[in-house]
Every structure is written in structure tokens, then in C-alpha cells.
Design goal:
Blueprint (H helix, E strand, L loop, with lengths): L1 H5 L1 H33 L4 H16 L2 H20 L7 H26 L3 H9 L4 H31 L11 H12 L2 H30 L8
């Protein structure tokens, strides 16, 4: 336990970077999910088919492999075209990979949520003269958000755990800090168990947060019997 105390500051520093990676990926993933859902519901058949194809490809490839492709593939592409003037950090590569996968799954969640909004409400909004943007922002998005929150909670939990994959490309996150400490002290169980506890604590905090968001989103709706 003394060794764990000695490395506690580094583990907490890694945990902070893990959270930063998760939240950044979440923000970009939500935007990609909304864009993907809009493309899947587009009136243009080629756009719908392309969005479904990209989503199926991203969901069909292991996330670890997508991370390797994004980091090493993009790094090679940047070095080839920019002669080393630009570099891709492990953090940026992790955000790209995690956001792409999260966005692929979120696009289906958002698409189903938008389709669940009663069409009568959309017709009523049009009859009041609301623009398409006003209908989306004031009618569709609030109701779709309420519907998809439970699924987004599950996806957030998976995203938070998947951040551990990025340590393989050199990101100094919580797991990599634990790896270094375990190799130096020869106590892998202690440090890996500590990382597992930290992940559980982060998820334990996330659940009440999403429960609060769901409660606010369900204001004005009758509770199920």
C-alpha cells in the first residue's frame, strides 16, 4: 500500500486525463451522432445509404483496431503530406477513434428517438409557422433527448471504459500510469485493482448525474405506473 500512496498523485493525474479524453470524445461523438442521424433521415437516398454504410462499418470493426487505424494511419498520412510539420498526438488520435465509434452508435439512437416524436406535433409546429430550425430545436430535440438519455447513459459508460485502450498508443492516462508503476514496483495487482476502483467510482458518479438529467427531461410527462 505504501507504493500505491507514492504513485497516487500520478494515478490521479492519469484519471484527470482519462476524464478529459472521455468528455472530449463525448462532445464530438454527440455531434457526429446528430449529423449521422440527420443523414440517415435525409430525403436524398445516396446520403441515407452512405450514412448507413459508414455506421455499419464503424460498428462492425473492433474499437481497438479503429484506434490503431486512426492513430497510425492518420499519423502516416500527416507525415506524408505535411513533411512532419504537423503531428498527431495520442490524445487527438484517441478522440478521433472514440468519437467515431460513439457517433456511429449514437446516430442510430438519435434516429430512433427522432422517429419516435409524434408526427402530429411536427405538423402542429408547421401550422404555427415555425421554421425547420425552430421545430428541430423546440419540438424535436427536447423530446428526442428525453427518449435517448437511457441509451446515452449506457454508451457513456462504455466510452469511459474504452478510454483505457488509448494507453496502447502512448497516452499517459490512468492505465498507462498504473502500468509504469506496476513494472517499477513489481506489484501489478495493487495498481490494476486501484485503477479498477477508480473506474467504478467514476461510473458510480455518472449514474446519479444521468438520473438527474432524465428527471429534468421527463418534467411534464406522466410517470409510468
Amino acid at each position: 500500500m505504501a507504493a500505491l500512496f507514492d504513485y497516487s498523485a500520478q494515478l490521479l493525474e492519469g484519471a484527470a486525463l482519462t476524464l478529459e479524453l472521455a468528455f472530449t470524445s463525448l462532445c464530438f461523438g454527440l455531434l457526429l451522432g446528430l449529423a449521422g442521424a440527420a443523414a440517415k433521415m435525409s430525403a436524398l437516398s445516396w446520403l441515407r445509404q452512405s450514412a448507413h454504410l459508414v455506421s455499419n462499418i464503424l460498428r462492425g470493426i473492433p474499437e481497438f483496431l479503429i484506434l490503431l487505424i486512426c492513430y497510425f494511419g492518420l499519423s502516416n498520412l500527416i507525415n506524408t503530406h505535411f513533411a512532419g510539420t504537423l503531428t498527431l498526438s495520442p490524445f487527438a488520435g484517441g478522440v478521433v477513434a472514440l468519437a467515431l465509434v460513439f457517433g456511429a452508435y449514437a446516430s442510430e439512437v438519435f434516429r430512433g428517438a427522432f422517429l419516435a416524436v409524434p408526427k402530429g406535433q411536427l405538423e402542429a409546429a408547421r401550422s404555427y409557422g415555425l421554421s425547420r430550425w425552430q421545430i428541430f430545436w423546440c419540438v424535436q430535440l427536447p423530446q428526442a433527448w428525453r427518449i435517448c438519455l437511457p441509451s446515452l447513459n449506457n454508451m457513456w459508460q462504455n466510452l469511459l471504459k474504452d478510454t483505457s485502450l488509448v494507453s496502447i498508443v502512448g497516452l499517459e492516462d490512468m492505465l498507462r500510469k498504473a502500468n509504469i508503476a506496476a513494472q517499477f514496483t513489481k506489484q501489478p495487482f495493487v495498481f490494476y485493482a486501484a485503477v479498477a476502483v477508480i473506474y467504478l467510482l467514476l461510473l458510480a458518479v455518472s449514474n446519479p448525474a444521468f438520473a438527474y438529467f432524465e428527471k429534468r427531461a421527463n418534467r411534464g410527462y406522466a410517470s409510468p405506473a
